Amino acid sequence: MSTAPVIVAQDAPPDGVWRRALRHKGFVVGAIVLLVFIVLGFGAPWLAPHDPYAQSLMRRLRPPAWAPNGSWTYPLGTDSFGRDYLSRLMHGARLALIVAFSAALLAGAIGTILGVVAGYMRGRVDRAISLLISTRLALPSLLVALAVLQVAGSGILVVVLVLGLTLWDRFAVVLRTAVLQIGRLDYVLAARASGASHARIMARELAPNILGHFLVVFSYEAGQAVLAATALSFLGLGIQPPEPTWGLMMAEGRNWLMVNPWLIAIAGFALMLLVLAMNLVGDALRDVLTPGERL
User: Fold this and answer.
1) Which architecture does CATH list for 20-46+81-289?
2) What does pTM read for this prediction?
């Protein structure tokens, strides 16, 4: 099993955490970019300038506004079916965020339960869960997802379930290590000595002190889920057309790469920005919530 990072639980007042976060340039930049994607994505039904599904061969492959013969009627141009690229990009952002957060939450729930139980119970339970984690780490996530989607079919729900069931291992490894360390602290030992139940100790003593570690891993896994979902859509096994996913937009644009490279470049740049924003937020949370430690 891969080695887990060593993390020491550190308490900090909520106001102190927010002050440190707002002084962290990476957090501010990442949060602003992520907020822009959230607003544009979930506000796409009202903010998008055109219907993302409306096709017209009369306006196909129009260039972006800054290119020769471009028009601000279609700021990012149109695709090979004449659909407005900006509108599809905004709706694609919403799908990417839904998949990312849903898959990360599912993976987080599975990994957190396994990690906390393994770190707290130890002994045979820890060894059994560690074996399960090692088995999961031995399986390449993307290949497993491809195989399952090939058999089970596609769709946003299937993609979320597949990604959630293949991305939980990092949560389990990190939180198991954190609980192993926190479990030796005086207040946990005192709770045990006072006769508190295992469920009460895990909920009242352990959960608040691993929340920061959970958020750090969540931000990273959300970015991984976006990349995986985009790759699956690009390969034709993710969310199916006519839904405007970024992977599908890049797959449709590869046939026009030499004459209209923006069909791939713009969606690829949006994907890079979204994943970068999530990683910046996660990196900043690591520095803010666990000062002096590195994940």
Assistant:
1) Orthogonal Bundle (1.10)
2) 0.86
